[in-house]
Specification:
mainly beta; 7-stranded antiparallel beta sheet
């Protein structure tokens, strides 16, 4: 996946003691995107706006808030999370890479 004509924030977004790291992009059309990596572990994220998470490398398992089932995602797969919600993402091994697009 390639992005052109973007503004990038050089300072990383660092979560969970550096086990989840992303960089923010602003696209020409105003869309907000983050590109990131997730090291092995389990992490919960709250959403203020709806998000689409696309896995670009590696694998993860996701449980959306209010759900009971864990769904596995790999490279080229995506999932959406509604606004004012959240999800728990788990990586068992390796590094999971992702692109998160904010939908609102």
């Amino acid at each position: 996946m390639t992005f052109e004509n973007v503004s990038a924030t050089a300072i990383a977004n660092v979560y969970f003691d550096g086990k989840v790291v992303s960089h923010s992009l602003a696209l020409v059309d105003g869309a907000q995107v983050t590109l990131g990596i997730i090291y092995p572990g389990e992490y919960h994220f709250a959403t203020e706006v709806a998000e689409c998470m696309e896995i670009t490398a590696g694998q993860c398992s996701v449980v959306k808030d209010g759900g009971e089932c864990s769904v596995r995602y790999g490279s080229g797969e995506r999932f959406e999370v509604p606004e004012n919600s959240g999800f728990t993402i788990s990586v068992e091994e390796g590094i999971c890479q992702y692109v998160c697009t904010f939908l609102s």
